[in-house]
């Protein structure tokens, strides 16, 4: 899908939106170039309807919860703000597919992969839960299917975005 011109214009000072990565009932995620820091990022933009349901104070409080999370399997929050009438937050662009997509594609994971992913996800969930954050399976990015180096940090599952309270992950 194409990037809405109004959104691209609202974010143009800091980000060049490249295209849509995914869409859910509450938000759309776009790939973007962070012009200021010269890095590739993902920007999650809440729908206009969802943005209207939240107060800016509530959104900022929820984002602060995510911003304080620091864990090897939780993708950090870089920034957040408002683009016109829509709220957004910025995070690293994580390569790979969601655990949900991998399970849909493969049906069943090899036992060793399933155990490793379950341990790492449980560790991240325990950490996040203790800080009042939550997530869902669509937020878990699993190692690329062609990855053979399971010891590499880049192949470990990580949360694409923790959803504080009710900020829905795709």
Roughly how many Å apart are the termini?
16 Å
Q: Which structural class matches the secondary elements?
A: alpha+beta
Strand order, sheet with most strands:
1-2-3-5-4
- Average pLDDT value? 77
Task: Summarize the model shown.
The chain is an alpha+beta fold and 170 residues long. The chain has 5 helices and 10 strands. The chain has a 5-stranded antiparallel beta sheet with strand order 1-2-3-5-4, with helices on both faces.
Question: What report would you give on this structure?
Answer:
By secondary structure, this protein is an alpha+beta fold. The protein has two domains: about 5-90, Phosphorylase Kinase, domain 1 (2-Layer Sandwich); about 95-165, no CATH class. It contains five helices and ten strands. It has helices at about 5-10, 50-55, 55-65, 100-105, 110-130, and strands at about 15-25, 25-35, 40-45, 80-85, 85-90, 95-100, 135, 140, 160, 165. The strands form three sheets. It has a five-stranded antiparallel β-sheet with strand order 1-2-3-5-4, with helices on both faces. The protein has a three-stranded antiparallel β-sheet with strand order 6-8-9. A two-stranded antiparallel ribbon has the order 7-10. The protein is globular. The two termini are about 15 Å apart. Residues about 145-170 have low confidence and may be disordered.
């Amino acid at each position: 899908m194409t990037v809405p011109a109004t959104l691209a214009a609202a974010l143009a000072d800091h980000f060049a939106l490249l295209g849509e990565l995914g869409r859910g009932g509450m938000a759309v995620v776009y790939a973007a170039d962070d012009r200021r820091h010269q890095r590739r990022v993902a920007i999650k933009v809440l729908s206009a309807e969802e943005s209207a349901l939240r107060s800016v104070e509530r959104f900022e409080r929820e984002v602060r919860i995510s911003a304080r999370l620091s864990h090897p399997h939780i993708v950090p929050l870089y920034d957040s703000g408002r683009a016109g009438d829509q709220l957004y937050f910025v995070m690293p662009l994580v390569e790979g597919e969601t655990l949900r997509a991998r399970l849909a594609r493969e049906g069943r994971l090899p036992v060793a992969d399933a155990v490793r992913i379950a341990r790492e996800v449980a560790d991240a969930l325990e950490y996040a839960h203790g800080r009042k954050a939550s997530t869902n399976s669509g937020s878990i990015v699993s190692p690329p299917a062609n990855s053979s180096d399971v010891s590499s940090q880049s192949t470990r599952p990580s949360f694409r975005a923790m959803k504080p309270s009710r900020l829905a992950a795709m």
